[in-house]
Amino acid sequence: MTRKGYAFALGLVLAAGMASADEERISFPRDYKTQFENYLSLDRVQNPDQIIRLFANDVAIEAAKQGRELPVGSVIVGEVYKAKKDDDGNVMTSSLGRRVRDKLAAVAVMEKGEGWGEKFPEELQNDDWDFAIFASDGERLNKDLNTCRSCHAPLAKTQHLFSLEHLAQ
């Protein structure tokens, strides 16, 4: 490998390390079911066999309703459920054409913190939003959060949220 090749490889390793260095800065919001608003429930667009229920804290909801940028301290929680499957392994849908919810698979948290985006490579930046994934009991799950970061990064026009319009309702 050439000197440039080593430098490039080292850069990738460092970027990956930066992208995961602060993953534990987000805590599981134990009170989200009672203190946050459930503003949307739908079949998950990114996964054909999941359903998601979205919750937001007052900080995020008030800013969205006023048409402002969601400030530091905004928290979005997504309960990610598996869809029920029939005996052949096909996703079951209701008479409304919607997936039927089964077991809770994970609780995804998206939180905005001061300067949080600065530590990530440009392609993983979501302004100052970052992500964490937990089990229903609050135990942190070992998931690749760069998948979350890269999926939300292109959504700059909607503050890196898929559901900004719904949050403002």
Kindly summarize this structure in a few lines.
The protein is an alpha+beta fold. The protein is built from 5 helices and 5 strands. A 5-stranded antiparallel β-sheet has the order 1-2-3-4-5.
Question: Features of this protein?
Answer:
single chain, globular, 24% strand, alpha+beta, 169 residues, disordered N terminus, 5 helices
Query: Main sheet: which strands, in order across?
Result: 1-2-3-4-5
Query: In one word, what is the shape?
Result: globular
Mean pLDDT: 89
Q: Assess the beta-strand content as a share of residues.
A: 15-25%
End-to-end Cα distance: 55 Å
Overall description:
The protein starts with a helix and ends with a helix. Helix content is 25%, strand content 24%. The protein is globular, with a radius of gyration of 18 Å. It has helices at residues 3-20, 32-35, 58-65, 145-152, 164-167, and strands at residues 37-43, 50-56, 75-83, 101-112, 129-134. The protein has 169 residues and is an alpha+beta fold. The protein is built from 5 helices and 5 strands.
